[in-house]
User: Which sequence fits this backbone?
């Protein structure tokens, strides 16, 4: 055990010193790997929002700083990594917030983003596609397809993020796989999604398969090109992640998600986000800890053996 108790670790992710926005503009954003929070919550559900998600995930990550996991013996803190604090947003102005997020993301290298609601993925992909000069492959772990043209009467919402990403050419649909899908969806949206070339693996299919087989399927879809991971915490069953705005029964177990992610090393990962943690509905920090752990597993892939 470490000499410093976990409750005394700094507030940044994995105990990294979280710097002020002014300080990190000059320093932290130059790190090879940046952790950033995006507390965007535009209120498109009937439940309390996700603006406190980044802070909750950072707090829960203190449970991960004491040693490494024997499954892979990697320590993400060995990376050139910085917690660069939270991005600025324009409260109440969705287009302006998306523009701000995109511009701030463009200043960073490899970005791991803590949301916030799923709409934050859109400006992150915009910035990354511009930097890389083309669309990315995408692993989207979620209960929902998020390819509705509108969501709760809004064009820009957490249920329409990948409709826009596909239409804008930010992702390559035939290199996009959605894993854990199980929410109700209208047939038109479902057919449109499949018609674009997206691979959809329902939660039921995942339960009838295994992490090695699912990881192999993800690898086959993503291929060798640059790819991105967008992990909505409601990909997990509410038993493992109750603290989210739109829970759906029948989801992945935490161990299943870990087993899949741990088998995805060596892919050309270019960034990740972990979204939709709603602390107001959490119990004993288990949702925030699950979110912190999935981000930690992703960073472990980058740290290598």
Assistant:
């Amino acid at each position: 055990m470490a000499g410093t108790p976990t409750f005394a670790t700094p507030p940044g992710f994995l105990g990294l010193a979280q710097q002020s926005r002014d300080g990190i503009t000059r320093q932290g954003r130059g790190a090879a790997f940046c952790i950033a929070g995006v507390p965007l919550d535009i209120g498109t559900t009937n439940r309390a929002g996700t603006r406190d998600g980044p802070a909750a995930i950072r707090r829960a990550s203190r449970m991960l700083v004491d040693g490494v996991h024997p499954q892979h013996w990697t320590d993400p803190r060995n990376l050139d990594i910085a917690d660069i604090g939270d991005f600025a947003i324009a409260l109440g102005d969705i287009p302006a917030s998306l523009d701000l997020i995109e511009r701030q993301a463009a200043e960073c290298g490899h970005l791991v983003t803590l949301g916030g609601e799923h709409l934050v993925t859109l400006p992150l992909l915009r910035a990354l596609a511009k930097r890389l000069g083309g669309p990315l492959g995408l692993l989207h772990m979620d209960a929902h397809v998020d390819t509705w043209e509108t969501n709760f009467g809004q064009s820009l919402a957490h249920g329409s993020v990948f409709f826009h990403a596909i239409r804008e050419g930010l992702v390559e649909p035939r290199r996009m796989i959605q894993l854990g899908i199980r929410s109700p969806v209208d047939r038109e949206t479902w057919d449109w999604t499949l018609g674009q070339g997206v691979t959809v693996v329902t939660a039921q299919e995942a339960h009838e398969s295994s992490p090695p087989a699912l990881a192999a399927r993800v690898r086959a879809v993503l291929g060798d090109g640059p790819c991105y991971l967008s992990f909505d915490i409601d990909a997990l069953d509410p038993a493992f992640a109750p603290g989210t705005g739109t829970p759906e029964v029948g989801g992945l177990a935490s161990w299943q998600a870990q087993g899949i992610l741990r088998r995805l090393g060596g892919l050309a990962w270019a960034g990740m986000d972990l979204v939709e943690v709603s602390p107001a509905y959490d119990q004993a920090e288990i949702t925030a800890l699950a979110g912190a752990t999935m981000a930690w597993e992703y960073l472990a892939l980058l740290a290598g053996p």
In short: The first helix runs from residue 21 to 26. The chain has one domain: 6-303. The domain at 6-303 is CATH 3.40.800.10 (Arginase; Chain A).
